[in-house]
Write a structure and sequence with these properties.
Blueprint: E1 6-7, E2 10-11, H1 13-144
Antiparallel strand pairs: 1-2
Length: 145
């Protein structure tokens, strides 16, 4: 604390006034600093609230992204199952069609083979008949001599 000089009627007025002015200035500075700190604290509290809201929004976004990811995976699995099922059905149909076609071809081959045997027999009979005619011609030629 400052010490004041004594004068007639008490302390030196100018020193007391200077001291009071100094105390007022320091008090005003402290009030101003307090207000600045109060405003700074308010701004920081608002920023914290903003960050907390942002954090909550990010959490919700992550939860939603995870749910969406799970749904996409589930849908992909279901679609894959459908594709596999369709592929198996198509494969079975193709195999069945191929078996039916092979059976038809086999039946045609059997028919062709039977027809070939019949044709050979008939051709053999015709050739034998023609040979008989040729031999008869030779016999006739011999008798005419």
């Amino acid at each position: 604390m400052d010490k004041f000089h004594y004068e007639e009627n008490g302390y030196n007025r100018s020193e007391v006034h200077a001291f009071i002015e100094n105390v007022i200035k320091e008090t005003e500075d402290l009030i101003k600093k307090y207000q600045e700190q109060k405003n700074s604290i308010k701004q920081l509290e608002n920023r914290i609230k903003s960050y907390e809201q942002l954090e909550e929004t990010i959490k919700q976004s992550l939860i939603n992204a995870e749910k969406t990811s799970d749904n996409l995976k589930r849908l992909a699995r279901e679609e894959a199952d459908v594709i596999v099922h369709d592929a198996k059905s198509n494969a079975s149909r193709i195999v069945n069609e191929a078996l039916i076609k092979a059976e038809r071809i086999e039946q045609r081959a059997d028919t062709l083979e039977r027809n070939m045997k019949i044709f050979k027999r008939k051709l053999k009979i015709i050739v034998e008949q023609q040979m008989a005619v040729v031999e008869e011609i030779e016999v006739l030629d011999l008798k005419d001599d």
